Amino acid sequence: MSFFGELYLRSTLPFLSEETTAKEVAYLARSFEELRVPGPVVDLGCGHGRHAARLNARGPLAGRVVGLELDPLSLQERLPGFAAVRADLRSLPFRTGSLAGAYAWYSSLFIFSDEEHVALLREVARCLKPGGRMVLHTVPYERLASQPEASFSTRLPDGSLLEEKSRFDAVRGRDEATRKLTRPDGRVLSGHYAIRYYPLADLTQLLEFTGFSLRWVHGGLEQEKPSGTSTDLVVGAELRHG
Length: 242
Ligand SMILES: C[S@@+](CC[C@H](N)C(=O)[O-])C[C@H]1O[C@@H](n2cnc3c(N)ncnc32)[C@H](O)[C@@H]1O
Prior knowledge:
Layout: H1 6-12, H2 18-32, E1 41-44, H3 50-57, E2 65-69, H4 72-76, E3 83-86, E4 99-104, H5 114-127, E5 128-138, H6 141-146, E6 149-155, E7 161-169, E8 174-182, E9 188-196, H7 200-209, E10 212-218, E11 233-239
Parallel strand pairs: 1-2, 1-4, 2-3, 4-5
Antiparallel strand pairs: 5-11, 6-7, 7-8, 8-9, 10-11
Residues 4, 45-47, 50, 69-71, 74, 88-89, 105-106, 108, 111 line the site of S-adenosylmethionine (SAM).
């Protein structure tokens, strides 16, 4: 993992305010509030656990959240208060029909190939109990398409220099970026990442193809209707019967 790990953590955490995380946690708590299926809910690609720790502490998912993460540093530096397993998203270490729910924030499921996304979503479906729920957060395809090239350079609070260049290929629906972090001691961390952004119709089809029924689509954390200018795209889906 050249991008996820130290580079991702040191360059992303400074931008994740308490306020942002609190809003995301409130959205997730609300999404699972009416879930009547008992059992654990997994945070897929939990990172350092900013959602999992809070959701496991109180609210409808209290005591039920398990994190799943491949990066050892994220797990080592994670917030206290929730159990986590080190595993690959593409091969989930859960028994068939054992989970009440799953969620993935920040496009965490869409960092692989289209074929792998199909396999991965089928894996999530395999692990869910009947009536189990999945919530996925990403960014609308249209948002990337409207501004396909981006670059920035900024100084982080600890004095590191963060530089990033990205380009969205609207035909392939893939945003490819390189990120470089020059630490205050001169150490350089750099990596490349690609994220797949699906137009909503394609995402809906992907979910249905992999065994889910779409329950809702929101364009923001206040449950706004999605539009071409939405900042977020959050979908709620349930394991389809039969
Ligand atoms: C975009 S980050 C989101 C982290 C967290 N969900 C959040 O919102 O703060 C994606 C996470 O997925 C993890 N990840 C990347 N590839 C993975 C894989 N193959 N299996 C499990 N986790 C993976 C990364 O290490 C990273 O923590």
